[in-house]
Amino acid sequence: MLDAADRRLMRDGEPVELSSRYLDALTLLLSEPGKLVSKDRFMDEVWRGIPVTDEALTQCIRTLRRQLGDDVARPRFIETVPKHGYRFIGAVEGDSRPIPRTASANPWRDVALLGVAGTIGGGMAGFLGGLIYGFAGASQPLQAGVGAMSVLLVILCVTIAVALIGGAGVSFGIAIGRRVAGRDWWASTAGGALGGLIIGAAVKLLGLDAFTLLFGHSPAGITGASEGALLGGAVGLAVWLAFRSGPARLRRSIVIAGLIGALAGFVIALAGGRLMAGSLDLLARAFPDSRLHLDQISGLFGESGFGPVTRLVTSTLEGALFSACVVGAMILAGRSFASLNLALDQGAES
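RESULT FIELD:
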């Protein structure tokens, strides 16, 4: 007997232990007995758009069958419709009204998990990029009293901070978009774009105000809302592609995310925008006494200064690195979340 309102499944008067999400899945099946419930509906209404692999749904149905005493080879309750979903085929007695479906016990925890994971991924991208730009800056002839290690640490801290903030905006935007609007491509893309736009605009506004306050003027062309929106939308699209069909394969998804992010970075530079390296160069040129120089990177492309080729290449690589790290971190978080649910469910059964 399922008491959906009280969220209890009983057998012979004894409670049957099920995790909150698995109880939601059973409630969804029983709300439309005899009708196909697609995989997308499970993901939208049980996992609330949180990107998990198909294995999470498979394990959920396997547990429900075990608790109901069902057999996948000769089903009496839950029938598999290959590649499409599942159908409840057992006789249902009792209240004929639709069974209310309730949200999982803590749905915003899932949003927080993916948002934090993406933020960490963005920070990792900032760390890797900061090492490259830091070593390039530290290899320049330095003025007296300026140590190479100081240059490296300053650039590293700045790039990590910016990447963490950008990663947080984009990742939480994607997670919230999928939570509110479902698993459609536009939900992830719009969520990432909106998050990137808001964070990009806020960082640029605060940055320009800070430079004006401290130095009397500020460089107007540093990265901002438009760059954040385009790169955030690209990451959102990559997340959707990673989870749209079956289990997300980490390596393939990272490669795809890198390619999409690289394209976004290329378009940003082509349109005259700037990401991290371009912004650092602009800051260096806006303040003549600055000790920051990235001539080592420009020299790799035969340019004496931070020219158009250098800006195109660095922007493309930054977009690829940021997108790949954020998407990779979110995939790993989705896998960990599915494993955690499985462990909690097995613990409840034992």
